[in-house]
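anyone else get weird line breaks when pasting these?? whatever heres mine. first is seq + tokens for prot A
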Amino acid sequence: MKKRLFPVAVAVLALGLTGCAGAGSQSGQSSEAAGVKVAASFYPMAYLAEEIGGDAVTVTDLTPPGGDAHELEISPKQVAELGNQDLVLYLGSGFQPAVEEAVAMQEVPTLDAMDAVKEDQLREGDAHIWLNPMIMAEIGDLTAERLSETDPNHAETFAHNAKEFRTKMEALDSKYREELAGCAGATLVTSHEAFGYLADAYSLEQIGITGINPEAEPSPKRLREVEKIAKEHDATTIFFESTAAQTTADRLAEAVGVKTAQLNPIEGTPEQDFVTVMETNLSALSGGLNCK
């Protein structure tokens, strides 16, 4: 059974990460018996750690269900307990500043998922790399290597799991390429610029209503700009993220005369697993984009 633990309440948080690991064991076994201890900064990293580590790891997701990954705060106790982890898997580039600051305070093995992104793939100010399946596959390979350094006895298992994970991501990538084959150059109008890496992978042009900050209310000038671009590119749908209010998307959709649809940026823990949510996003894209 894959083990993931969440700091879900103040009382639990006060115990620190080590306390969480002990609470998550079936019979109070020691942390050593629980396998390699991995702290993951938010859901996509936790999902990936579980896929690669399997039963050989215990994963602590630092962002609890329903929590805002962008706004995550880490207590001094948690910062100290990060030093007891065998690996911290996180996403740099300012996506979760509190995690980066905490990691810098501890001498603990780390993996910044941004290391998997090739220079020509990087997008300035955007860290949503997990929405590109092939980048996820690269992160999986790096995770297997780092786990193998920590636990050489399970190196073959980690390598095997990474290979299977890559196959899963390749299949997902193939689905996207097949269903979006006629959409190259189509305009993806979103309420939050979280889908740039996905758009780049499948030759789409992303236009964000608010920019990369989902909490920012777009100005009337910005709405007019996006309205003009959407009309010029014959956009048929305004996509809004499932975690954001639909009001802005509805306003623009009404102004342009198009429909709305949801895209999940998968920043928080979803009700379904990663691949299923990605497939749901694909259905929304293929049904909403202006494709040939």
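and prot B, same format (seq, then tokens)
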Amino acid sequence: MLYCFVDDQKAEGFPVERICEIAGVSTSAYYDWKKHRCGMVTAGVLRERLLVNEIRQIHKTSKGTYGSPRVTVELCNRGRVVNRKRVERLMRIHDIVGHTPKKRTVTTIPYAAHRIPDLVKRDFTPGGLDQLWAGDITYIRTWEGFLYLAVVEDLASRRILGMSMAGHMRASLVGDALDEAVGTRGGHVDGVVFHSDRGSQYTSGEYGDLCAGYRITQSVGRTGVCWDNAPSESFFATLKKELVNRTTFRTHAEARIAIRHWIESWYNRLRLSSVIGYQTPIGWENHYRHNTQTLAA
């Protein structure tokens, strides 16, 4: 029936006026038919309800952090044929929204008496794994006071390889994160370039000696220019938006457990990253290694 066709196409997001014109019926006749259908549900309406339920499930799994772009990608990964505009429309109609971040506070303490060059020049696109790492420090509010978090990220896959948390910002904080990152890679890190800001922890002799021992080359951005270490800033913004700003931590221990779980179980393994083509960091690494081995065979 023509009215059912119009109703189905309307459920797919097409304008009623245009569909009625194609079907050769008037919009007033269509709305009159719709008004007197005695509560019958068309196949199109039913499909839309099922789609909305799946969108809600994906949004809930992300703990309310996914917006329409990542929801659309996840639907496609599940075999759905759906475009972003339709997902955006349904999320708006049903009040399904991603979380909006709060403003952050800078924690960099610059140290001018160093001679470490900027080897990256804002080119954060290495050709493969373990070529370019980046790191930074941020703070986490708890009832016990600030907890400081340092991370090491592989800029090819955007995977967090190492992290360290403590109630201080001494050089050992960033050193512990680097030790964990090296351990994640099994100690095979010769030739890695590590990029950071000019914070005193990263430009200290202690950290320089640690990098030299691992045969890691240091690189630093300019003082006060956040874009010179944009990937780390972006990761912390995501962490704050999706976890920290939505959680009240009573103790440092609570924060440590929650943050490590979020990074290892969600961010590295399940969260879709737009920077790497809406893949997960570990998924990207698996594809990269598979392709590398195939080419070498």
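btw re prot B: Strands lie at 132-140, 147-154, 159-166, 193-196, 217-220. The chain has a mean pLDDT of 84.
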